[in-house]
Amino acid sequence: MGSFPFHKLHAVKAGYEFHVAKNLRLKYQLDKSLFSINGDLIVANFRLARELTSKINEKRKSEGKSDQQITAGLINAVGLMHEIFHFLIRWYEEKENPGVLKRTLNSLYQHVGEKELNQVLLEYVEQFPPLDVYVGKITTEDYLSSSTNGKPNAEIVLEELILLQLENINPAGKLLEELYSDKIISEKTKYIELIDEAENYLTTEKTFGPENLPLIQFLRKPIISNPHFVRM
C-alpha cells in the first residue's frame, strides 16, 4: 500500500469534537448550539474549553467529587484525539480502501444479525443523538435510514461506534469517561460483539499505516503504546 502522508494531519480542523451522551448534556446544561450535526460536542477554542471545564468542575464539586476535577487541556487533548481518529478513518475509507465501511456493515448483518445490528445502531443514536434527533426534528429510525451529505447514516454511526469504543478503553481520558461511557449501550445491546466482529472482518481488508495493520488495530496502537499521553 502507499505510505500515509502524516504531514496532512495539519488539516484536522482547529475546533475539536468528541462524544457526549444525551443525559450528560442535560446534567451539565450544555447548550445544543455547542453540538455538531452528528451530535458530537464542538470544542471550538480554548476559551470554550475553559468554560466547559468550569461548568463540569463546579457540578462535580457540588456532588462531592472534588477529586474528579478536570482541565481545559484534557478536554482539548481528548477532542484532538477524536478528530485525528476521524481524519484517519476518512482518509483510509476515501483514499486507501473505498467502500470499506459499507462492506463492514454487510459483514455485520451476516455475522451479528440484522436485528442485533440495528439494535446497536439505534441505541447509539438514542444515547448520542445527532442534533436533529436531539431537538426532535426527526426520529432515531428516520435518521438511521437516511444519509448526511451523501453518506449513509448507518456508516457514520458505525464509524462513531468504533471511536466510542476507543475512547472508552483509553485510560488517559478516565476523568472524562462519564461523558462518553459505553456502559448503557453495552448492557442493552450486542455492542461489544459488534465491535469484535467488525475488528475480525477488518483483518480481511486492506491494511493501513507504516506497519500495515488492520484499521482498528492501527487506531488502537497509540492508546496501547502511550496510554497516558493526554493526562494533564
Report on this model:
The chain has one domain (6-225). The chain is 57% helix and 4% strand. The chain contains twelve helices and four strands; from the N terminus they run βαβααααααββααααα. The chain has helices at residues 22-27, 46-62, 72-96, 100-111, 114-127, 131-134, 140-144, 153-169, 177-180, 183-188, 191-202, 215-225; strands at 16-18, 41-43, 147-148, 151-152. Strands 1-2 form a two-stranded antiparallel sheet. Strands 3-4 form a two-stranded antiparallel sheet. Helix 2 (46-62) packs across helix 3 (72-96) and helix 4 packs across helix 11 (191-202).
How would you summarize the topology of this molecule?
Blueprint: E1 16-18, H1 22-27, E2 41-43, H2 46-62, H3 72-96, H4 100-111, H5 114-127, H6 131-134, H7 140-144, E3 147-148, E4 151-152, H8 153-169, H9 177-180, H10 183-188, H11 191-202, H12 215-225
Antiparallel strand pairs: 1-2, 3-4
Helix pairs in contact: 2-3, 4-11
